[in-house]
What we know:
The structure is a single chain. By secondary structure, the protein is an alpha+beta fold. It has one domain (8-204). It has helices at 8-33, 70-77, 100-106, 108-112, 115-124, 128-133, and strands at 43-47, 53-57, 84-86, 93-95, 136-141, 156-168, 174-188, 194-204. Residues 29-38 have low confidence and may be disordered.
Amino acid sequence: MRRTPPEYIPRLLAYQIKFEELLTIKREANDTLCDKKEGKRNISVIQDVDGKNIVIINDIRFKGKRSVDWKDVREYLKEFVGEFYTIAATGDVVFIGSDLPNEYSGSKYTHSIKGANAKAKANAAQGIPELIEIAIGKHFRENKEEKHWRNAKHGWYRYDSRFALPVYDGYGEIERYNVFHASLIVRHSEDRKLYLYDILDIKKETSNPIEP
C-alpha cells in the first residue's frame, strides 16, 4: 500500500537543499576571496522555502571568545557612513549617518546583550546594505523624546529583516547556518531623509530553515 509521508518530510528535504546551496555559495566565495584584500564583504541573499529573504553573512569577522570588541565594530561601521540603500518593498531610501557607528556599538541595547546575540549583532554589521534592502513590515511612531527633536523630528520607523551566520564544527567546516530576526530602527530627520539609527531585537529563529 502506498503511504503518504508526514507533512514535515518535504519541508525538511527542502531545507536540506537550501543548506547544500549555502555550502556551495560558501566554497565559491572562499575561492574568489583568497586573492582579494582583507576586509572584503562576503555576503549573499537567498530565499527560504517560504519565499522570505535572508541575508547570508558568510564570514565571522568579529569573533571574541568572551566578549565582542565593540570598538572594532564601531570602526568598521564608519566605512558605510555617507552611503544609502533602497528598501525594495517600499522604495524608501535609507542613509547611513555619522551617528550610526556610535549608536550601533554603544546603545543601551548593545550593552544589554551577551553571548550569541552580541556576536550576531556585531557580525550583522557586515550585511547592513542587504539588511536594509530586504527589510519589510514598516511601522511608524511619533518622536516623543526631546533629545531627538532634530535628528528624528518626523518620527521613527521600524522594519523587520533577517540574516544568517555560519556555525563551524571542530574541523573548521560549516555545520549549519543560524537564522536571526532583527528590527531596523530608522529615524526621519529634520532634513526629511531616513537614517538607520540602530538594529535591535536580535533573536535566533527557533524554526530554522537553514539547519540540516
